[in-house]
Amino acid sequence: MLLTSKSYKFIQIFHMSQKMAIAWLHSSMEMEIEKIVRTINDHPFPNQPLRPALYSQLPQSILSAPFVEKVLGNLFGAHSNGLKAYELFKYCLDSDFYTPSSGAFEKTLHILTRMRYFDEAWELVKRIKRTHPSLLTLKSMSIMLSRIAKFQSYEETLEAFERLQTDIYSGRKFGTNEFNVLLRAFCTQRQMKEARSVFSRMHYDFIPNIKTMNILLLGFKESGDITAVELFYHEMVRRGFKPNNVTYNIRIDAYCKKGHFGDALRLLEEMECAGCSPTMETITTLIHGAGLVRNITKAKHLFEEIHKRSLQLDTGAYNALLSSLIRSKDMISATTLMDQMERRNIEHDNVTYHNMFLGLMRSNGIDGVSTLYTKMVRKDFVPKIRTVVMLMKLFCQNDRVDMGLDLWNYLVKKGHCPHGHALDFLVTGLCARGRVEESFNCTKQMLERGRLVSERVFQMLERFLVQMGELHRLEELKLMINKLKSLLPPPD
């Protein structure tokens, strides 16, 4: 018995040591990723080439697929300049130690196309075709086409699809899946006239399936036309397609978003009668819909039903209930629910924080927001753009410009390139208080990271710098802006 007890203790200690070692490795990797992201974002662009810095900071011997994918993911989230991310990925591709993953390739492609570097994006897919053709997936095709559909014309999008078919994905027969990717490109941009045109022209060549119909149905839902959703639903049924979970989820969401919660509940019953089991997405959508019509009792009931339906609670379900509580102005219950998420090890994501900040702004004002902001920073959580801009506006327009500057410095320290709208609010707030030096430094940081500043920011700084006789600084900004304009795509 004594031996068994000792053995048990030894196993416990061994497992604990393993967990500590894994946690340490994870923490060490996160610190290294943050350091590389910061190095790339802080690098003066385009005054100096990035590759020498990568050679000194990122030895090729330590490159691994998960590491590079994480760095590129952070660069994507940090809104880094696309050419810098591309330079990093090319540096990795040139290494004998590195085999690229589809995730790393897709993130690089996403960063480039988001900034409309389409020439570089085509150059990248051509290189991948030569060296790693297995990385050319439906997802990479979708990234390319959806951005072209957003920034270019209908004809150019169709030409891009043809180019992918004949040049990049040559040797692969395009079928329904590729057709669906093209349709999704238009539907995600709410270009339903173009999507219907493509469907009418090409559905004889590419036989549509239920996924095709759901993509179009989703497009009508995203365009906000509930009548079009229902008309197309009946059309797909007439064509012989049997609705599935996705079909019902789209229709339920359409009704919820329009405030027709009773109709959404009716569809839930219809869904179950048709033998389609509701998913977490179904229940989460309904909880959110209940919140939109201020039916907090039903929202709570649906939330409690999740366990009874043998579904797994996740961040999305908590966020839906949290949003419902906030809409009902019950911030005490919302705060309690947020604490419950923490106790149950369910992550707070950007939606959690954004909704809580919105609720606190309406109820507790700036003080409540300040408390949650401090807590968020302590947890090393980096909010997304819309939350950053919302917080920066709140801080700078409520005489808390120091908190705005703190948020800016926090993002820069984490390797992020804050959004231009955030800089607009910060520079306005700082200049209004005579803090031109700090305004100049933040603007310079933005430009050094390869991102242009707005005309409003430049004109404001120009006025103050001329008044102060700091013409050399004004000239420095002009040079940086002109150099960037020669490299960056023109504004929309």
TrEMBL record:
Coiled coil: none annotated. InterPro entries: PPR-containing_protein, PPR_rpt, TPR-like_helical_dom_sf. This is Pentacotripeptide-repeat region of PRORP domain-containing protein. PPR repeats lie at residues 209-243, 244-278, 314-348, 349-383. Belongs to the PPR family. P subfamily. Keywords: Repeat. The keyword Repeat applies. The keyword Repeat applies.
